[in-house]
Amino acid sequence: MSEPQPESSGPRRSQRDKKIAKPFASAPNNSRSRKRKREETDTDNDAVSDTDDVEQPESGEEGDIDVDDEEHKIPKARKSKGKSPTKAKSTPAVKKPRADKSSLPKAPKPKARRGRKFKEGQDVYDADQVAKDTRISADNPLFNAIMNPASALQSSAEDFLESLEQSPGIALAELINLILRACGCNDSVDADQTLDFDGIVSTLDDFTEVLKQENSPVYPLTSKLPVFKRFRKSLSEWIERLIISASDLGLLYTSQLMETLQQWVVSMSSSQIRSFRHTATVVALEAETALCDVAAAVDKESHLVARQREGEKKRKGKGGNPQLDAKSKEVKNRQHKLKAYIKEFVDGVFVHRFRDLDPHIRAECVRSIGLWLKKYPEHFLDANYLRYIGWVLSDSNNHVRLEAVKSLSGVYDQTDYLHSVTNFTERFKARLLEMATSDIDLAIRVAVIQVLGDIEIHFPLEEEEKEKLCLLLFDEEPRVRKAVSSFVRAIWEEELEEKLAGKNKPTDTDKNRIGIKVLSQLLVKWNKALDHLSGDTAESEIGEEDTADINDGEKQSKKRKELVALFAAGDRGRVALAVEALWDDVEPVSDWEGLLELLLLDHSANDDEDQNGQASRGRNKTNGKKNTHDFQVDEAWRLEEAEESILLEVLVTVLRLAKEVSTSGKKGEDETVSNDITRELIKGLPRLFIKHQSDQNRIAEVLVLPTLMNLDLYLEMRMITAYSSLWDDVVKQFTSHSSTKVLGHAMVTVRYFMAATSLSNTNSTKILELEDELSTQLRDTIAGREEIEIASFSEDEVLALSAWCLRFNVLAGARNMTSWTEEDEGGKQSSAWDIVSALVERGRLGYREEETMVERALNVLMLHVMWKTKGLSVEDEPTPEEVRYKEVLIEQRDSLLEKLSEFAVSTQSNTVEGVKRAAFKHLLDLHVLFSPANAVSSNNQSLPIATLSITLDDEMQFRCAGYVQAEIERYAEFLDDETPEDENSEHSDAGSDEDADSAKDNTIHVKPRRRKKVHKESQLSDRDILEREYLFIDIVSTFLRAIRAGSIHIQHGAVVLAHFGRLEVAFDTCSRVVVDVLREESLMKDDPDLIVAVISHAIQEAHTLVFDGLVRDETNGVQLAKLLSTCFVVRGSQLSVLRRLPDQHIVQVQTNLLSWINKRIAGYEKNKNKKGLKNAVLFFRVLMPLLSGLRSRDALKVKAHMDQVLEEAKVEITSTAKVWEPQRAYEKRLTAIMAKDNPQAPKPRKGKKKTTSGAASEDETDGERTNDEDLPNAPRRKSRRVTRANPVGEDEHEHTADEQEAPVTPKSKPRPRPVKRSKTPSEASGDAEMSLPGSPIDPLTPSEEGQEADEPEIRAEPHLPTPKSARKRARTPEDADEPPVNGADDVPGSPDEVEIQIRRKRVRH
């Protein structure tokens, strides 16, 4: 094998005089590697080598690795051992022609692709074992080389090219077989098949037929086997090395390598087999990527040769250089061939596969075109190719869209080709903005934002588009905020440059302050835009013009008082999130000292500002100090009020971030930063309090600043007086403001002060002063009034009392105020409890302007009782003081319960809606608190509250359920969003029903009024709607909490269940709590009658909504029935059955509901109300999910009950009437259940084409819809009796109908002949009415089952007569004792018929 090698290498050099350089000459591997290493380390100053010089470090590594890799190829290189020294000496002769560097096409070396070394200790690659594990043959050396982790891919590619020169057909066959193995196909092609391009399709068809026989063929690209982990990367690397090496050797242009590869790959890429299609696409795309590298290098060479020719022409005149002319022609020829190869791959593979059904293939195509855009922009960076990426931006698969965005990441960095992307940018910019703001995939949003940032540099966005992108700074996702921060920084820098342009020689301080000013302007602008988008503006508040409706009287400000629990002082706002994102990008954000310094200045303009617009100074004094030059405010950085407010939020966030960052720094740095902040705030806080005390939004932010201080520093610096002054400032804001936000922040600061134990003396004094101030405010407000319950209060007094109650609620939420509340100074004055109780009594007066005051007063009393309960003692022998304590608690609790009951559910109450809502929640909360279920701890020990337990009587429970029902109806009207077209359609339906009763007409005429109101409320903002939903869910959740605690009986949960599916998702989630409680009742308390009652009542109420026209159809009822059916069986882990509802109770649910609906049906039938009858019959669809768990005998009882009540109702049911389809489907389901687990019925054989209808409908959970009306000629039900005259029983027809409802893949089994004939409508209706298919009383015999199993053979017998039983009516239960007619027995004396008759009589008697 070593002799032919030098013979083949000599002629190759002599025959190709154009190819001067032979870097891959057929020589021993070691010498070739050393030669490459020397060539790649050569340096030159020629222009063509500039790119290669940059890549030399990688290329050098490449050469070293190739030498190492060749050490593993020593056994294979035995053939050239003897020639090695000679070839090594001749190496310089090969390099000699490289003196002219410009003549060599410099294709780039594969970047970052190292030859793989064999790791020490790693298992040696065993091809046979891999073939056994993967079921892919190991007969292809190329495939084995790619699979082998220790193989040198460069050597493998070079060996293949040597083989291609010597025997092209065999080498190309190995290449195609490599692709086949990569597809998981073990078939092979020979040299003749490989080059027979016309037979490629037929050959591939043969291969695919073999692959179709395997259920799940394994192919490396998608396999999860560890051995294939590196296959994708190795395959790509091998293809790249192959094409680049072939280009260097010239084989890419002189051999059939590319033509053969393209013919096979293009054909395979359109195969129906996914493995063929996917693998061929990957091979084509990787080959195209390598061709792009080669083409880009050849283009550079072409440009260089052109420049050399121009230089030669200038130097020698018109003659030029014939050698350069020949070289130019040769380069152009290569360019032409490369472009042809590239075009073939694009047109043959990419254009078809970029829209493949498989998202993995689409993603491969998009990722590859992104590489082509970077590697060969001269060809691909064009609108014709960019449009493919634009189209894929709307792909349904997340990964495909992400790859499309990634492919655009480097496009806008290539400034030489920006003119090519102008049209693409204008066309798809809107789509990119949409993806950045609303794509469901987070990674896509981040990538798109980066692309839009690149677009902004070269193609400036419109102001509206910039604003949309900048609003993402407030996005809820941290990665999105961080990604957009660089874009925001560019906007900020642009605005800053404009500001500084008009400033003459600004100082560093001016630049810093102007930067802060610009940042504040941008944040204010974007905040307003976001408020406008969310509808959270002053104009979005509900107006006062409509006071007739109960809901319209609740203004947004009043609704928000209900949401106090949602606001917390520690919650971060949108500005805080923006500051966190900008911390590392925008310089002023991290400069907290500059922010504080700017905020301490007085930015208010003087009243005597001159008319020339000159810069005016602020007030001369701030906090008693004169203004110096440092305190002068320049117009360039004068802050507006909105800007000051937002900068205060920025300051708070910046101080927090500064402390957090310092904790992760050096040891002791956090303490240093904290002390620095504290020293600056000690000096600045008094001025900030004075400056912003009149603005509640700004003072709320100022109140947070003390929580960022190190209070111990006051003691160390001996500044107790300053600390006392700080306490006074906080208390002053607490007692003078009524904003929830201000009071919440002030309370957080007070608690932070109280936690400073080193300053406990000052803290104790100041908290007592706060309590005294509250007491003084309360008594001053009601001074001079004897009977507060009926006294008249001015508007200011009502507001003052309401604010006082809010302050007390905030304080009592964090501190036990019971002693203070009951303090009456020995009877000299009224206690706070008495005063607040008197204010609560005013709730029965129904004054709307006092609604807020009474609500907050109720909350004061509720908090007092809860704190009082918490203070109960656990001693068995209480002291007299403890006994008195409990007596007072009981007295106060009962007094409060009396008021709450009157306000919430009393029929004589004149309470306004807000007070009623608050009273209802407090009433249930008190009963939950003192529920007997809460009187025992988890270890069965009695709690102190055990002696105080109370229960809610039945009447009050019904009233509470009625209140919840009213709230549900009110909220349902609020959500009613039916369109006028629906309204018109319902009126037309009503008009067509001439016999509709008057009650139904009245219901329909009520709807337009509700829609009118909804049209007005549809103008509410999203925030208003969300707050309305919160108030509603708050009531429902309180009611459900009482049910779960046992304070309200579970039977009242039907009020909530009846509206399942009608309202929002949050309500449906709450409804499931009732079902959970029902399951617990079934599992723990074993009370099935209760479950039956609740389910029956809930289903009835749900369908009553359909009768009343409040719900369109039975869909919600069906969903509710599915949910309630889970109560029949309680399952545990791994679906184990813990408890099952007794069968008789499941039957009772069906019989109760059947009796109820049949009364409705009888009434509508009597009144000829067609629409009501239609809605009533729809109820049978609701009943179907409740049949789950029903057994055969129970199904028979249900069917008998249904037949009985329908007969009593004297309802005529026709099998052809469309209106009775739900009833027929229900009856069919019952029949299936009866046939399913009948012990006397024969079991259907496995693997049969046809099964019983019971099996077909066993897993059905919703109403069945038949297709009879769509198939008028379909055969109706026949007699289920199976004889030779009637070989097809009715069960088969039922299954056929089921198959029509749920199509399945048909098999080749022929259908029985009798089925071909369809009955007339009269015959079909007669059969449907008179037959009882699948009844357990009338089973099939085993012999009949065997007959049914042999249907094809029966049909094949020529002597059998044509079946005529299709003309005969089926036997009914009334005909059970009658002898069969002659037509029923076409073969008299048949033993089968005799046996069937005997069995019928035996079973029936």
Strand content: under 5%
Oligomer state of the chains in this structure: single chain
Estimated helix fraction: 55-70%
Q: Separation of termini?
A: 96 Å
Can you give the mean pLDDT? 74
The number of distinct β-strands equals 4
Helix segment tally:
61
Structural class: mainly alpha
Main β-sheet: number of strands, strand sense, barrel status? 2 strands, antiparallel
Weakly predicted, low-confidence segments: 1-106, 111-122, 538-560, 606-629, 978-1018, 1241-1405
Give Rg in angstroms.
44 Å
Which word captures the global form?
A: flat
Strand order of the largest sheet: 1-2
Folded structure, characterized:
The chain contains 61 helices and four strands. It is mainly alpha-helical and 1405 residues long. It has a two-stranded antiparallel ribbon with strand order 1-2. The protein has a two-stranded antiparallel sheet with strand order 3-4. A hairpin with a 2-residue loop joins strand 1 and strand 2 (625-626).
Short description:
The chain is mostly helical and 1405 residues long. Helices cover 61% and strands 1% of the residues.
SSE order and pairing:
Blueprint: H1 4-15, H2 29-41, H3 50-54, H4 56-70, H5 84-89, H6 91-95, H7 127-134, H8 141-147, H9 153-166, H10 168-182, H11 191-195, H12 200-212, H13 231-249, H14 251-254, H15 257-268, H16 274-316, H17 322-353, H18 359-375, H19 377-380, H20 383-392, H21 398-407, H22 422-438, H23 442-458, H24 463-470, H25 478-501, H26 508-534, H27 556-560, H28 574-582, H29 592-599, E1 621-622, E2 625-626, H30 641-663, H31 669-692, H32 696-702, H33 712-716, H34 720-736, H35 740-754, H36 760-781, H37 795-812, H38 818-822, H39 832-841, H40 851-870, H41 880-905, H42 913-929, H43 954-975, H44 980-992, H45 998-1017, H46 1022-1045, H47 1054-1057, H48 1065-1085, H49 1088-1107, H50 1115-1124, E3 1129-1131, E4 1137-1140, H51 1143-1167, H52 1170-1177, H53 1179-1183, H54 1192-1208, H55 1221-1236, H56 1253-1256, H57 1290-1301, H58 1321-1330, H59 1342-1349, H60 1351-1356, H61 1391-1404
Helix pairs in contact: 2-4, 9-10, 9-13, 10-15, 13-16, 15-16, 15-17, 16-17, 16-18, 18-21, 20-22, 21-23, 22-23, 23-25, 25-26, 25-28, 26-30, 28-30, 29-30, 30-31, 30-32, 31-32, 31-34, 32-35, 34-35, 34-36, 35-37, 36-37, 37-40, 39-40, 40-41, 40-42, 41-42, 42-46, 43-46, 44-45, 46-48, 49-50, 49-51, 51-52, ...
